Amino acid sequence: MARPANANAEATRARILDAALRLFADAGRGQTSVRDIARAADVSLGMVNHYFGSKDELYETCVASMFAELAELRGHLAPLFLRTQNPRAAMEAAVRSGYQFARDHRDAVRFALRGVLESGELDPRRREELLVPYLDSASTLLAGYGGLEAAQLRLPLQSLVFLVGRYAISGEAELAASTGARDVAAAHAAVADHLVAFALRTLLPPAP
User: Fold this and answer.
1) Are residues 135 and 193 in the same domain?
2) Dist CA 165 CA 170 (whole Å)
3) Is residue 99 located within the same domain as residue 193?
4) Does residue 104 share a domain with residue 29?
5) Euclidean distance between CA atoms 9 and 43, whole angstroms
6) What are the tens digits of pLDDT across the range 145-203?
7) Is the CA virtual torsion 168, 170, 171, 175 positive or negative?
8) Do residues 74 and 22 both lie within one domain?
9) Global confidence as pTM
10) Same domain, 101 and 158
11) What's the CA gap between 7 and 4, in Å, rounded?
């Protein structure tokens, strides 16, 4: 079967976007040039401009792509809590799934954290589109399990987000130093256990 006419174009565009996301996460917007991105994507400078117009437009596309990746997580986690009879088991599954998701999307997480480091906050528009609805819905849901009130759960939820993101981007040496584990798999398992313990302790009422 013949390949669709736009298959190569889409693959090229995706390669440029992946390279840009990685380089913006590594060095920041100001220290990354279009030429750097073209070289990393193994395309011409003109090809980058053809697909994205300018570095600013490419950066904004990376922002949109990053938030789209992170927004997928809500779709993965929400079903775990629907009609659950065991909120503690649902919370453990959600935290482990969220941590694995962040590890699988490290470039997007690093890009998000780079933006926070450079400006001191999430982009206001994206904050209203993604973070605020998450805090609103998650805090209301968890308050229904009889622990803290919704307003008291917002900060622990945000802290959990920060912890998941920070540990997900950690390198092997840092994980080994932090956990004392002998290999990467054991280190990630220890981090996941720690995140679960934090979530259960701060977000749900004590076990009976």
Assistant:
1) yes
2) 9
3) yes
4) no
5) 12
6) 888 999 999 999 999 999 999 999 999 999 999 999 989 999 999 999 999 999 999 99
7) negative
8) no
9) 0.84
10) yes
11) 5
Q: Which pLDDT tens digit goes with each residue over 7-57?
A: 588 899 999 999 999 999 998 888 899 999 999 999 999 999 999 989 999
Question: What are the residue ranges of helices labelled H in 128-149?
Answer: 132-143
Q: How many CB atoms lie within 10 A of CB 49?
A: 15
CATH number, residue 68: 1.10.357
Domain containing 28: what range?
A: 7-53
Based on the fold, state whether residues 22 and 69 are members of the same structural domain. no
Is residue 36 located within the same domain as residue 82?
no
Cα torsion angle, 129, 130, 132, 134, sign: positive
- In this structure, the answer to whether residues 89 and 184 fall within a common structural domain is yes
Residue 13 amino acid letter: R
Q: Is the pLDDT score of 4 beyond 70?
A: no
pLDDT at position 69 is 77
Name the 3-class secondary structure at 187. Answer: helix
* Number of other CB atoms surrounding residue 102 within 10 Å: 21
Determine the pLDDT at residue 12.
Answer: 92
Two structure tokens written together for 109: 């997480």
Q: Which long-range contacts does 17-21 make (Cβ < 8 Å, 24+ apart)?
A: 17/58, 17/61, 17/62, 17/65, 18/107, 20/58, 20/59, 20/61, 20/62, 21/62, 21/65, 21/66, 21/107, 21/108, 21/111
